[in-house]
Amino acid sequence: MAKLPTDIPTIVSQFGPSLHRVPPGGWEQTGEDEKQVKTHCCFCGQQCGIQLRVRNNKVVGFEPWEDFPFNKGKLCPKGVKRYMQDEHPDRLKTPLQRAEGKGYEPLSWDAAMTRVVSEIQRIQSTFGKDAFGILSGASLTNEKAYLMGKFARVAMQTANIDYNGRLCMVSAGAASKKVFGVDRSANPWSDIPKAKVILVAGANVAECAPITTDYLWQARENGAKLIVLDPRMTPIARNADLFIPVRPGGDIGVFHGMMRIMIQRGWIDRAYIDNYTSGFDEYARVVEKYTPEYAAKIAGVPFDLIARAAEMWGPAPSSFLLHARGIEHHSKGVENCIAAIQLVLATGRLGREGCGYAMITGQGNGQGAREQGQKCDQLPGNRDISDPAARKYIAGVWDVPEESIPGKGLSAVPLVEAIHEGKIKGLLSICFNPTVSLPDANYIRAALEELEFYVNIDFFLSETARYADIVLPGSLMEEDEGTTTSVEGRVIRHRKVVTPPGEAREDWKIICEIAARLGKGEKFNYASPRDMFEELRVASKGGVSDYYGMTWERIDAENGIFWPCPEPGHPGTPRLYENKKFNHPDGRAHFYPVDWRPSVEMPDDEYPIILTTGRVVSHFLSGTQTRRIGALLDQYPQPRCEMHPRLAEKLGISDGDFVKVESRRGSVVVRAMIVKTIRPDTVFVPYHWPLGRSANNMTIRAIDPVSNIPEYKICAVKVSKAEAPTDPISQLGVEAGGVR
Amino acid sequence: MSERMFFIDHSRCIGCESCVQACAECDTHRGTSMIHLEVIQRSESVQTTPQVCMHCEDPICARVCPADAIKKTPDGVVQSSLKPRCIGCSNCVMSCPFGVPKYQAAIDQMMKCDMCYDRSSIGKKPMCATVCPSGALTFATMEEIQRTRRGIPINSWKFGGEEVRTKVYVMVPRTIERVDVELVQVTATPAPLPEDPYDVALMLEETI
Q: To bridge A716 with a disulfide, which of A11, A261, A607, B183 should be the other Cys (CB 3.0-4.6 Å)?
C-alpha cells in the first residue's frame, strides 16, 4: 500500500515533529543524580564522550566527560541538547499500523510481527527473494550493522540491502581503497596539531564536525598554515591562511593545478614514489594538462590562489589533509578524493607523526557501519561479497552454505529506482529517512507509493515512516549498548543508560524476532549485543577492518581501540602505513590518472545558478531528531537560501524576501539570506527540512559510477522572488516543513 | 581555589552556540542562558563572538546600582543581582560596556554570568569553557595559555575615556597591550571602508 493514510497536517498533529524544550520533571526539578553514565554522543562521526545524568530511569541532563581523550569534555550544541530526545512527546511507544483515512493505530507486537512476516513471505514467494529490499543506517552500532547484513543474507536471503552511508562516506572510502587498499582515515586526530600545513577540502568543520575545530586551531598556534577549499567562507575559512572559494565541482582544478607546480618545483618525494608506489607517471601526464589557465578555469578561481596553495603545501616539512562531503558528494566524488589524496602520497608525507590524511566521517557510526557487511556489495570485515574466499569464510562463520549467500545487490539510489519501477515490492527500513535525505525527493516519495508493503523501524515517525504499513518502535542510542567506530577508526563503547519506554524495544531484538519468525531463529540466537560483537570480531578476522583482538573490557579500559587489532593483546593501530606497506597485492600505493569532467547538470541559460547543499551546526542529517529539539530548532529554525549581494541585486531580491529556488525536478520557497561569504554564481540551501522546504526537491538523482554517492553538491537552478506561500504544508510549524 | 583563569579568543569562535546552549543547562538557572553569542554582521562575514561576563575589577554595573544589589566575591567574580535587593531598574544593563547583564522580566531581576560559581568554586571549569569546541572560551592557567597560544592575553580596555580592567582575559596579537574602543559619531555619510576582506566576489576578481 505505502501511501499516506491521511493528509500531512493530520499526521503532524498526532506524531510531530513537535518541539521538546524541558527535561523530565521540568527545569525546576532538582536533586541528586542516581548515576552519570559515560557514553558517547548519538549524532556525528566524531563520537564525543559525554556523561548522561539519570534519575528514575530518565535522562535528565548531561555532564561533560573531560577524561575522554578525543573531545576532552568539548561538545557541540547537538551534543549538549541530545538528551531532549528522551521522554519526547513524539516518541513511538507501540507498534503502529496504517489506518486509511485516519493515520496510524496501535496494534500488538504479535499482530505487527505476524503481518510483517506474512508480507515478507508473500512478496518473496511471489516475486522472488530479491523483491524485498532493506535500507539500513550508519547511525547504528557495529553490532546492529553486522546484524542487518546477516539478517538480509541469512534470514531474508535478499541481495538488496544497502544503507544511508551510501549518501555519506562511500566516495571517501572507495578512493582510499583504490589508492591504499584500506578504507579508513590514515591517522589519529592527535596528528593534526603536529602538522605544519593543513589542507581542508570541502569540509565545513565548524558546523559539521565542530570538535575538530580545536585540533585545527591548535595546529595554527603551533605555526601551521591552514588552507581551506569551499564555495562558501565557512567559520574556519574566515581565519584560514588561504581560503580558495572553489567553484562547486571544480576541486580537481585546484588539486592538479597544485601538483603541476609541485612537480615543476621538485616538491615531491621521488624516492618515496619510486620505492612504495605505482602509476605516478600516468598521473603526472594528466596533471601536465593543468596549466595555470586550465586549472584556474576548472577551479573557477584566480590561479594565484592555487599557486599559493602549492607554495604552502609543496615544501612543508609535515602536512595533513582533511576531506569531507564537499568533494565527495559528486558524480566524480571518488576521483575528487583520489586527486586530493595524491597530494599526500606524492610528497610521501604519511604514516608518521604529523603527516597523513583523514576523511571526516559524517554519521555516528559512519566508519564502523560500513565495515560490518550491510553494504550491498560487502560482507563483514570490509570484505567483497563477490570474492569467493570471503564468501567461504563468512559462510563458515554463519554456518550456512556459501551458495545461500546472495551476490551483490543494489545500492541505495538504484534500490529506490527499482521500487519506482516495480521490481522491488517490499521494503524494511531502519535508521534511514530517504524522503528527506535522498536526492530528487519528489521521485523518492513517488517511489515509496509503489511499494506493496513497507515496514519501518524508528523511534520517531519520520517523514518516510509516514508511508509505512507497519511502524515498529525501536531504540535510541542510550537505550541499548554496543560499539561504534569513530572518525579516527577508534572502536568505542556506547553504554545502556535507560531502558526503552513503553513497548518500544531494542532494535536488535526486533530484527532477531523477525528472523526467528522467518524460521532462522537458530542463526540469530543472541542474548545481548555483546554476543553479536563476539561473532562480529570473528567475522572480521583476517579482513581489512580486523576487530578480532578486541574485547569490550579493553575498549573500556583503553578509551577505545583502533583497528586493525588482529589478535588478543595487539595494541591496535592508531596510525596506518608506518611501515610504508599498502594493502594491495604488490604492497604499493597506487596513483590514478584521474581527470576533471563536468558534473551531470551544469548551469545553462534556463537554470543559470549552481545550487549546493549542506548542513548547519544545530541540525543533524534529515532532522528527524534535531527538528524535535526546541533549543536546536530555535538556533536555526528554517532553511534559508544563501546568496551573494551581486546575485541578489541582479535578481531583485532583498535580504529576508521569499524566493523560489527551482530545478528541473522540484522547488522550494524559502527566505533569502544575502551574504558576501558565498560565490556569486552559487546559492546554498541546507537540507535538514522536509517537503516544501527540502533542498533535495531540487538535487539531481545522479550518482558516482564507483561509489554510487549522489551528486548533492551541484545542480542547476533558477531563483526568483516569490510570494509568501499559503499551501497547507507552509502553514505547519517550521520543524514540520512550514515557513515563516 | 583554582589558579585557572578565563580566556576568550574571538578569532577561534565558530558561532556554534554550544556555550549558550550549555549555559542554559546549569543547575542554578535552569533553562535560561546567562551568556550570549554576538553575530557581528552576518551579511559581511561569519564572525561571531561569545559574550560572557568579563568580571570587571571595578564593576560599573555594581557602581551604578542604586540598590547595591550586585556584589563581587573575594576572588573577583561579579555575581548576579541579589534577589531581595534588585529593583529591576536596569541601570546595570545600560551601563555595562560589554552588554552583559540582562533584565529578566519574569522574575523582575537582573541575571548575569557568574562564571559558573557553583562549578568554578569547587575546582571545575565553567560549563561554557568546558564544552566550547573551538577553544574560543578556555579556562586554564596563565602558564598553559602562554605555552599553547601564539597571541597574548590582556585584560585592559579603554572605552572612550573610561579605562576598565577585567578578570577575564582576551587573546590578542602580541603587538597589542590594550583594547581601545573608539566612540564614534554615526553620520549619514560613513567614512570609506577598506577593501572587504570577506567578500568572496572580490577574491574571485584577483588577477593572475
A: A607
* Residue A253: inside a domain: yes
For position A325, which CATH number holds?
Answer: 3.40.228.10
> In 10 A of CB A727, how many CB atoms?
12
Domain containing A703 — which CATH number?
Answer: 2.40.40.20
| Statement to judge: residues A396 and A532 lie in one domain | yes
Asked if pLDDT for residue B208 goes beyond 60, the answer is no
Instruction: Please say if the pLDDT value at position B133 is more than 50.
Output: yes
pLDDT per residue over B77-121, tens digit each? 999 999 999 999 999 999 999 999 999 998 999 999 999 999 988
Amino acid letter, residue A588: R
Range B5-62+114-181 classified under CATH 3.30.70.20:
yes
A664 and A553, same structural domain?
no
For residues A44 and A160, membership in a common domain is answered with no
Is residue A9 one of the residues assigned to a domain?
Answer: no
Q: Is the peptide bond before A17 cis (omega within 30 degrees of 0)?
A: yes
Q: Is residue B200 less than 8 Å (CB to CB) from chain A?
A: yes
Q: Best of B21, B23, B195 to disrupt the A interface by mutation (most A CBs within 10 Å)?
A: B21
Confirm whether A706 is domain-assigned: yes
Residue ending a domain, among A332, A359, A386, is A359
Identify which of A114, A113, A104, A98 has the alpha carbon closest to the alpha carbon of residue A469. Answer: A98
pLDDT in tens, B149-173: 999 999 999 988 889 999 999 999 9
What three-state secondary structure class fits B52? coil
In B, minimum Cα distance to A21 occurs at: B31
| Min distance B152 CA to chain A CA atoms (Å) | 11
Burial class (CB in 10 A: 0-12, 13-18, 19+), A491: buried
A677-705 confidence digits (pLDDT tens): 999 999 999 999 999 999 999 999 999 99
Nearest partner of A124 among A97, A152, A103, judged by Cα: A152
Q: Name residues whose C-beta falls within 8 Å of residue B11's C-beta, 6 or more positions apart in sequence.
A: A239, B151, B171
Chain A residues whose CB is inside 8 A of the B45 CB are: 233, 238, 676-677
Residues A336, A437, single domain; the answer is no
Please check the confidence at residue B189 and state whether its pLDDT lies above 70: no
Tell me the chain B residues in contact with residue A65 when contact means C-beta distances shorter than 8 Å. none
Question: A394 and A479, same structural domain?
Answer: yes
Domain range for A54: 21-85
- Distance in Å, alpha carbon of B97 to nearest chain A alpha carbon: 26
CB contact under 8 A, A655 and B43: yes
Measured between beta carbons, the chain A residues lying within 8 angstroms of B196 are 676
pLDDT reading at B1 higher than 60: no
Has residue A384 been placed in a domain? yes
- Residue B109, helix vs strand vs coil: strand
pLDDT of residue A265 exceeding 80, the answer is: yes
Q: Say how far apart CA A576 and CA A689 lie, in whole Å.
A: 38
CB-CB neighbors (< 8 A) of B50 in chain A: none
Q: How far is B64 from chain A (nearest CA, A)?
A: 32
B49 Cβ under 8 Å from any chain A Cβ: no
What gap in Å lies between CA A370 and CA A372, rounded to an integer? 6
Q: Give per-residue pLDDT as tens, A331-366.
A: 999 999 999 999 999 999 999 999 999 999 999 999
A39: its cell numbers: 557514553
ipTM: 0.95
Tell me what the pLDDT averaged over chain A comes to. Answer: 97
Nearest CB neighbour to A678, from listed B20, B130, B200: B200
Q: Which residue, chain included where needed, has cell 589557465?
A: A293
Q: Are residues A110 and A144 in the same domain?
A: yes
Last residue within a domain, chosen from A47, A63, A85: A85
State whether A42 and A106 are in the same domain.
Answer: no
Domain count, chain A: 4
pTM of the model: 0.96
Subunit contact A80:B11, Cβ cutoff 8 A:
no
Residue A112 shares a structural domain with residue A255: no
Residue of B nearest to A230 (CA): B200
Q: Please, what is the Cα angle at A569 between A564 and A572, to 5 degrees?
A: 25
